């Protein structure tokens, strides 16, 4: 995590009020977290930091793209990333991040690192199902799509025949009643 020192915020020397921090995130950032799902990435992170007497209010905004493979065709494409994460930082006897909206830092802390919050916000902003935009609009030409169309079920076939063993069992029930 020593590669992430630029994400440290030393809040002790900051005056009360609004402060702005800007970060550029690329694949080196994700390598520090051993995360390799993105082929490439170019993301701008803007952090609005409001220091108050007893707490901090943080609002992270991200814009950019990550290059990921399509789940349908496996073709690489740039997935737009646009997300926001509000966070309140308070002070207490010990570090606690159990609540996703409130971070508690120990009273003796003088700085904290925002890299983990940026990482989680970006990774969670990528959709679970990643589909290339050309697949959605129908303009994608790909061997994988051609094969999927070839294997597509054209119409459902309903089979009227039943298993003769079940027919015998059904007859047992009807024979008892008569």
Return Rg in Å: 27 Å
End-to-end separation in angstroms reads 81 Å
Mean pLDDT: 84
What is the number of beta strands? 7
Q: How would a crystallographer describe the biggest sheet?
A: 5 strands, mixed
Q: Can you tell me the residue ranges where pLDDT is under 50 for at least 5 consecutive residues?
A: none
Succession of helices and strands: EEHEEEEEHHHH
Q: Structural class, from helix and strand content?
A: alpha+beta
- What is the helix fraction of residues, given as a range? 10-25%
What would the principal axes of the Cα set say about the shape?
elongated
| Biggest sheet strand line-up | 2-3-4-5-6
Please tally the helical runs, counting DSSP H or I stretches of 4 or more residues. Answer: 5
**Beta-strand percentage range:** 35-45%
Describe this structure in words.
- This protein is an alpha+beta fold.
- The protein has helices at 27-31, 115-125, 133-137, 143-151, 164-177; strands at residues 8-10, 17-25, 40-51, 55-69, 76-92, 102-106, 111-113.
- It has five helices and seven strands, in the order ββαβββββαααα.
- The strands form two sheets. Strands 2-3-4-5-6 form a five-stranded mixed sheet.
- The longest helix is centred in the C-terminal third of the chain and has 14 residues, at 164-177.
- The model has no long low-confidence stretch (mean pLDDT 84).
């Amino acid at each position: 995590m020593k590669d992430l020192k630029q994400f440290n915020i030393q809040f002790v020397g900051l005056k009360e009020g609004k402060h702005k921090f800007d970060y550029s995130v690329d694949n080196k950032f994700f390598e520090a977290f051993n995360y390799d799902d993105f082929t490439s990435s170019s993301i701008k992170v803007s952090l609005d930091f409001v220091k108050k007497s007893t707490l901090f209010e943080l609002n992270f905004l991200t814009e950019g793209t990550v290059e990921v493979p399509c789940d349908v065709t496996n073709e690489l494409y740039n997935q737009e990333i646009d997300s926001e994460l509000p966070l309140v930082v308070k002070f207490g006897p010990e570090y606690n991040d159990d609540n996703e909206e409130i971070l508690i830092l120990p009273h003796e802390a003088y700085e904290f690192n925002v890299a983990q919050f940026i990482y989680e916000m970006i990774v969670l902003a990528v959709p679970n199902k990643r589909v290339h935009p050309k697949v959605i609009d129908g303009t994608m030409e790909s061997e994988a799509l051609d094969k999927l169309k070839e294997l597509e079920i054209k119409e459902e076939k309903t089979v009227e025949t039943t298993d003769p063993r079940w027919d015998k069992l059904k007859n047992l029930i009807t024979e008892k009643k008569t």
